[in-house]
Amino acid sequence: LTLQFHLLGTAAGGGLPQWNCLCRQCDLARREPLRVYPRTQQQACFSTDGEHWFLLGASPDLRQQLASFPPLWPRAVRTTLIAGIVLLSADLDGVLGLLLLREFTPLTIYSTAPVRRALLANPFFAMLTRVPGQLTWVEITPGVAFTLGEPPVTLTPLPLGDQLPFYAGSLDGGAGASIGLLLEHDGRKLVYTPGVPHVSSSLLEHYAQADAVFVDGSFWSDSELSGTHSGTPQARAIGHQPLSGPDGTLAALGTLPASTVRILVHINNTNPILDPDSPEHAQALAAGWQIPRDGWQL
Ligand SMILES: [Zn+2]
Fold it and tell me: Cα of 22 to ligand 1 centre, how many Å?
């Protein structure tokens, strides 16, 4: 009955190192990769039988991530063990991987209506519907549970934001444009939220009742991006509550039970916690958080 849950990628958009960046962490990831580990972009997957796997998001690094994870290798020519893909938003960092899976093997995508609208407005995604039965789209709704796998995992989408990404232009977002997931299996609860604009009281309640929480670790401070590259926005302005400070995520989740497994995910390359020799890294660990590498498993 065990839930196998893996993190195939742990970095925010751009990965580590990011192609155009020479911030401290990107520099160290190139020069001292045994100190600051290179990371691919955020990607998780799970299975309860080892035969049917479900992806959470579809990262731009998905090809490499699948190649690096033997349990997901095909067992016969032109087949896959990917039984479904749950999208958490329409952000390119979480959907571009779909375009890498266009070799005619049937896929089932679970997403909310606004995410589906945003993707289908883009002609690239027609590559996934070239032959009948290639793509099955299942609509999911915030607050409405559904099950995946056998033995089943019950998933409940948690609404986190109502904005679609910039590329969606004038398309309406609305409830479900960005979600987290509550996963329940065998009496255990896990909350997966790689993008958290704000730790609301209802989200905090879900975290408090969970056995394990995977939380947005994009930024240490609100001004981290603009400090690295002037003219860039604050963390909160792009939908990520920073970790530090009296109103940061570590403080907000400081009330969780000591037994809660706490995992930081979706870590941006500008975040100093990526350097194990930094005081910020020590501070996150002291607060009970794990900073997993790619390949981490629950
Ligand atoms: Zn960088």
Answer: 5
Mean pLDDT, contiguous 10-residue spans, the chain (298 residues): 93 97 97 98 98 98 98 96 98 97 95 96 93 95 97 97 90 94 97 96 97 98 83 86 95 96 98 97 97 96
Interval between CA 236 and ligand 1 midpoint (Å) = 19
- How many CA atoms does the CB half-sphere of 41 hold within 13 Å? 21
pTM: 0.96
Distance CA 242, CA 267 (A): 11
For residue 290, how far is its CA from the centre of ligand 1 (angstroms)? 21
Whole-number Å distance, alpha carbon 267 to ligand 1 midpoint, is 11
31's CB contacts (< 8 A; 6+ apart) are none
Please compute, for residue 109, the number of CA atoms within 13 A of its CA located in the half-sphere on the CB side.
29
